């Protein structure tokens, strides 16, 4: 495995084999194994459900709510601006819009209750973060291997999400893999 890591493999033998496209067929009918169909990813965004202009207005409102919430938590205007610009704030707003059937009014009402999602530092314990950083140093961005060896209770997609949110946090600078730089693959 180590000899092929980072190597670009081209050709028909290295391509995924996709099942035949069958529109309108429920996921549970696509696989003969019902357990397999439950492990499929859930659709979280349907772009055609919202006009671009409505989406932009909704995201501006969601960020404004996050900024206000950030300032109300005893912070300053800079804290509010940071809360509004965080990627997880935008992801949370888009998830709430999806869960609200792409109705911006309904989604904004739901966001009033929680305009700023729980921070990434609250979702993972300090020990888990340390293991994750150790995994980055040891295995680079081989999230499957990090999961297998260091964080078996986490799903690989959780590790990928954590990586992309974590690398933008101030904590990444102090706990980041500076001694053993992350190898890009």
Describe this structure in words.
The protein is an all-alpha fold and 185 residues long. Among the domains are: 50-117, no CATH class; 121-175, Orthogonal Bundle (Arc Repressor Mutant, subunit A), CATH 1.10.10.60. The chain contains 11 helices and no strands. It has helices spanning 27-30, 34-38, 52-72, 77-85, 87-99, 104-113, 120-123, 126-139, 143-149, 156-166, 170-175. Helix 8 crosses helix 9 (143-149). The longest helix is centred in the middle third of the chain and has 21 residues, at 52-72. The chain is globular. The protein starts with 26 loop residues before the first helix and ends in a 10-residue tail after the last helix. The model is unreliable at 178-185 (pLDDT under 50).
Task: Kindly estimate the percentage of residues that lie in beta strands according to DSSP.
Answer: under 5%
**Tally of DSSP helical segments:** 11
Please outline the major beta sheet: none
Mean pLDDT: 75
Unreliably modeled segments? 178-185
Measure the end-to-end span: 13 Å
Class by helix and strand content?
mainly alpha
Domain SANT: 119-171
Region (Disordered): 1-41
Keywords: Nucleus, Transcription, Transcription regulation
Protein name: Arginine-glutamic acid dipeptide repeats protein
Which key terms come to mind for this protein?
about 180 residues; mainly alpha; Arc Repressor Mutant, subunit A; 11 helices; about 55% helix; about 0% strand; globular; disordered C terminus; SANT_dom; transcription
Concise summary:
The protein is an all-alpha fold and 185 residues long. It is 56% helix and 0% strand.
């Amino acid at each position: 495995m180590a000899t092929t890591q980072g190597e670009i493999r081209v050709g028909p033998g290295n391509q995924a084999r996709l099942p035949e496209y069958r529109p309108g067929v429920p996921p549970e009918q696509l696989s003969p194994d019902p357990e397999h169909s439950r492990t499929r990813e859930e659709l979280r965004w349907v772009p055609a459900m919202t006009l671009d202009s409505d989406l932009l207005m909704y995201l501006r409102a969601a960020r404004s709510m996050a900024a206000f919430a950030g300032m109300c938590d005893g912070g300053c205007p800079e804290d509010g601006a940071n809360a509004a610009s965080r990627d997880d704030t935008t992801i949370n707003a888009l998830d709430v819009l999806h869960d609200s059937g792409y109705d911006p009014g309904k989604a904004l009402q739901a966001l009033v209750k929680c305009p700023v999602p729980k921070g990434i530092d609250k979702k993972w314990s300090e020990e888990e973060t340390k293991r994750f950083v150790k995994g980055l140093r040891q295995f680079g961005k081989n999230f499957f291997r990090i999961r297998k060896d260091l964080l078996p209770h986490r799903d690989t997609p959780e590790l990928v999400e954590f990586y992309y949110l974590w690398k933008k946090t101030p904590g990444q600078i102090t706990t980041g893999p500076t001694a053993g730089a992350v190898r890009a693959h």
